Amino acid sequence: MQSLDLSLKKKKKKKKPALDLEDGASPAVDELTDKTEALSLNEEAAPADADLTGKKKKKKSKSASEEAPAEEEPVAEEPLEEIDTSIKKKKKKSKALDEELDAEAAVAAAEAAENDMFGDDAPADDTGDLDLSGKKKKKKKKAAEAGEEEDDVFASEEKAPVAAGAETWLGSDRDYTYPELLQRVFDIMRAKNPTVAVGEKRRFVMKPPQVLRIGAKKCALVNFVEICSLMRRTQDHVLLFILSELGTTGSMDGNNHLIVKGRFQQKQMETVLRHYIREYVTCHTCKSPETNLTKENRLSFLQCETCGSTCSVAAIKAGFQAITTKRAAMRTG
Amino acid sequence: MATIQNFVPSRLDPFANDQSEDAPGGNYIHIRIQQRNGRKTLTTVQGVGEEFDKKKLVKAFKKEFACNGTIVEHPEYGEVIQLQGDQRNSICEFLVKFDLAKKEQLKVHGF
Predict the structure, then answer these.
(1) B82 contacts chain A (CB < 8 A)
(2) CB atoms inside a 10 Å sphere around CB A51
(3) A269 contacts on B by Cβ (under 8 Å)
(4) All structural domains of chain A with their residue ranges
């Protein structure tokens, strides 16, 4: 029953744009139709694709390139596909068969679509699956790339690429690469003056935050004061950051614990603290944690004690807070 | 008077803000998460550019992430998109994929 419902709904939605676009077919649409004809051999699949492109163009206020809809399509249908393939296929096919089905009553149409689906149109289905898989691969790869890049961005302590070994180019004909030379320079510097740690990455060691649950809705950060002193930041500043980042309220209690409203795990607190350290503790130039946070006429500056650089850091701002409590309760309270 | 050597006056103002970078300081897109009751969460997207139609964006989000969503008008922050559930990563991917924002522009908050 559910699948039936879905197909009906889809048809209602899809029909309009398809009709709109049939007159003025853009070149992108033409190409798409060519492709689909070549793939699936039934012409009625073409308008379905065309209407997708049209919708995308309307949705984004940017000129939809030819690949944009192609990417979009599998994304929209991917989650469905794994769970129940029948619904997905029918969605496609019922679009394709729209014109034939127009004459018939809605329920009968859906049934007919179903029958066609499972009976006659087996080859067409196959082609549909084929091209979907091709597109999906593309998308997966992209997602993977995006993930990797994101990891790079969010890695708080990234390491410089280390060359395989010193002077590996000696044995071969090839030219030395820049990282190798850089490594060589640092090696020499370290060898010549062992007292000065040049470019040595000292890991900033942080105590893990101890989070205790207080009741059902609150959490306590037990070693909050300790963490603040380790980072050499005022408690107020850290408190403000944590609260604005988590989007909750909280305060210090008598035993110097930080009480935060909401359930948080230690891991989650760690990520928040890591954000704080990256933003307000480590020097943005040399990544050294020995820094001071000073305030000069309403602007915060981060001054590094190792390299002496100063850079301004953004003030902590809570940003938009959605209303999560009952509105009626707010009105009375 | 010593003259400054090698000083070539150019149209480039050396003290001007760096315009070449594509991440202008002002228009970050903040993606936040808020806890609701129980395991439920809420994702808010603040600072999507004026040139994009939020209504259509929400529609796309809702369809893509299979969640509900709405637009909240805020006097200071403009139109803010609210989505049900933790959609932070998927929003980031979506915005980057369709060139609505650069990766450097996105700021993900919360745990």
Answers:
(1) yes
(2) 24
(3) 111
(4) 211-284
CATH number of A211-284: 3.30.70.3150
d(CA A72, CA A165): 45
Assign domain B43-109 to a CATH class: alpha beta
Domain chopping of chain B, boundaries:
43-109
Contact of B92 with chain A, judged by CB distance below 8 Å, is answered with: yes
Count of other CB atoms within 10 angstroms of residue A8:
16
Q: Which residues of A touch B74 (CB under 8 A)?
A: 320
State the first-to-last Cα distance of chain B, in angstroms, to the nearest integer. Answer: 59
Task: List, for residues A256-314, the tens digit of each pLDDT value.
Answer: 899 999 888 899 899 899 889 888 888 888 888 888 888 888 888 988 888 888 888 88
